[in-house]
């Protein structure tokens, strides 16, 4: 299962340094420079943790996260900010789950993010997803077709999981790329097409992954 983090930070150099460090410990990282980008990312992706700089071009991230919380968004949040008064820290912890003051040690940030990822709420999707004779067990990280256990990579598992979750609707290329990799992958890259070819081969006949021109891919039950 891909563990995914959203990093919202308007300082480009710091955004690059933090995202590189988080990817270095195996996390998938989506980045945003402002609340508008973060809002779009949250609307299309599921996250295990989110890191927000408080003072962003659009304003303080604290009210934004508070609004999301009132809507039922339960993703653990770490605020990363230069605002270091006791009142600021208490306000941040009243909305978020952790608060780290700049400047900070990168190793400490990585450790705190990993800890929050372990606290992430369990996904609402069923533990076992099915389409026809295809079955994906998220708990055991197993994929079976007609009862036969298949060998898939972590990224193949993630892409197949999203296809099953959205079934029978088509899933856009961008969503599949961001779910299987992260925003480091160029949307124009052919990595998804290569992976789909591998998955089609591993799933055997009759074919189940259908190309939807101009959109992406969807699963269809074997006829």
UniProtKB/TrEMBL annotation:
- Coiled coil: which residue ranges? none
Please give the Gene Ontology molecular function terms for this protein. phosphorelay response regulator activity; transcription cis-regulatory region binding
Read off the InterPro entries from this record.
CheY-like_superfamily, OmpR/PhoB-type_DNA-bd, Sig_transdc_resp-reg_C-effctor, Sig_transdc_resp-reg_receiver, WalR-like, WH-like_DNA-bd_sf
GO BP field:
regulation of DNA-templated transcription
Task: Indicate yes or no for the key word DNA-binding.
Answer: yes
Keywords per UniProt? DNA-binding, Phosphoprotein
CDD domains hit by this protein: trans_reg_C
Q: Ranges for the OmpR/PhoB-type domain?
A: 126-221
Modification 4-aspartylphosphate, positions: 53
One Pfam annotation reads Response_reg
The record places domain Response regulatory at 4-117
GO cellular component terms, semicolon-separated: cytosol; protein-DNA complex
Instruction: Please list the residue ranges the record marks as binding DNA.
Output: 126-221
* Name of the protein described by the UniProt record: DNA-binding response regulator, OmpR family, contains REC and winged-helix (WHTH) domain
> Organism's domain of life?
Bacteria
Transmembrane region(s) = none
